Amino acid sequence: MTAAVIVVGSVNVDLVAAGGRMPRPGETVSMARFAEAQGGKGGNQASAAAALGARTYLVGAVGSDHWGAAARADLAARGVEVSGLATVDGATGVAIILVDDDGENSIAIVPGANSAVTPVVVASALDAIDEPQAIVVACLEVPLDAVEEAARVAARRGWGFVLNPAPAPLGALPASLLAAASVITPNETELESLGGVAALLAAGAGAVVVTRGGEGAELHRAGAAPQHIAPIPADVVDTTGAGDAFTAALAVGLAEGRALPDAVSWAAVAGAIATEGFGARGSLPTSAQVQARLRS
Question: Which residues bind ATP (predicted)?
Fold first, then answer.
């Protein structure tokens, strides 16, 4: 049976300036090129899961503008089921992204329609999905109460729940949300905002997978020694969306029944390949590409 992944998250249009160096505060710099691309952590994660072959659903919202129509069309073309993607009056979310010559990025987000993702929207969309087994993935680019509702419905349906705590929360997340997570996938900045690995495990999280970019990843579980997942060599062009590809691949691996350490290793390869193209969805790998890179 094909693995099922349900993403509850944001959809944005990415306005990307690349090539050169990041500006310092108060400084104007000239960058080499500009592109408009599809983005948003939810949209990226759903696109990555679909590319890996999972039956993928996206729950979120876009605006009534041309960007919203383009986002919906792009996701559908990638094989994402978008019946749970609402259209609301107003603007689609926007991300303004700078990418330097080393492929590192800096991102500012205007939520737009993502703010309209309410608990009612989430519950209605999830209740309409007929999947006996699935992994639900949620990020923090939509309102927190909507993420909490996604966790509640996942628990009620017997689905796994993966929390990607990005962008970094300004304060502590509800203990009930942390306890509902089968896996939490913070990067180093997000981990610091959440109080560290020990605090997350003490709150009841099933596991914590810390992504560390070029240094690989770490898997932490209560009562077990941490496991380091070595970085995967990649010809880095743009790191935008690499964390989303990692989280999506982890969810797909779990939905396929992989053991957690194997799913993390598989996700690390998918995240590395995702850095080799421009934009958040410029190099999303297929399952065959991940397997080939693992063998090499």
Answer: 187, 211-216, 243-244
Q: Is the pLDDT of residue 228 over 70?
A: yes
Query: Minimal CA–CA distance to 98: which of 239, 235, 246, 264?
Result: 239
Taken in order 231, 96, 122, 201, the sign of the CA dihedral is positive
Average pLDDT over residues 269-276: 93
CATH number at residue 77: 3.40.1190.20
- Is there a binding annotation on residue 225? no
Dist. CA 191–CA 273, nearest whole Å: 24
The pLDDT mean for the chain works out to 94
* Stronger pLDDT, 262 or 170, i.e. the higher one: 262
DSSP 52: T
pTM, to two decimals? 0.92
Range of the domain at 55: 5-24+33-295
CA distance 105 to 99: 4
Which residues are part of the catalytic machinery? 244
Please check if 277 is assigned to a binding site: yes
Q: How many residues does the chain have?
A: 296
**Domain total in the chain:** 1
Annotated binding residue at 238? yes
Give the residue carrying structure tokens 């939490």. Answer: 184
Residue 232: the pLDDT is 85
Over residues 74-94, the mean pLDDT reads 97
Say which residue the tokens 């306890």 belong to: 179
